[in-house]
Write a structure and sequence with these properties.
Layout (H helix, E strand, L loop, with lengths): L3 H14 L2 E6 L7 E6 L7 E7 L8 E8 L5 E12 L2 H7 L2 H6 L9 E16 L3 H9 L5 H4 E6 L5
Antiparallel strand pairs: 1-2, 1-4, 2-3, 3-6, 4-5, 5-6, 6-7
Length: 159
Amino acid sequence: MADAQTLKEHLWKKLTDGPFMMVGLTGSGQHSEPLTVQLDKDQVDRLYFFIGRDNRLAAGGAAMAQFVSKGHDFFACLSGTAQIDQDRAMIDKLWSKAAEAWFPGGKNDPNLALLRFDIADAELWESDVSLGGKLKMLFGGTIKPSEAGSHAKVASTAV
């Protein structure tokens, strides 16, 4: 079983490998939506997303983000606060050809907004079912928590 520090390291690695998350404002009554996270290794407990100014998340506020890794072996639920960030230097730093595909006007597209998600806390799961656990799954046995993988609640995702 991995400890909380290892799970936090795995979170950032997995987000780099498959940067798609579901993000929504809590209490808004609206569903979460898929977004591509923009990671800045210099920012602890912070995620960025390029969105349209007309996007429902642009209103900001308390938010949740969920992540499932490409291999379906790592899961994260992050809570925090979302808000529009006007920092032009950060837009320049995070800009990519993939972002430009969504904003034909480039970095100066009038609809472009940079959504900043400040992580308040997170819950992380990594499934790493043991060989014994896999056999139990195959034959209908009961899997003990120690055979299922790792889990941690963390106040910071900093590694």
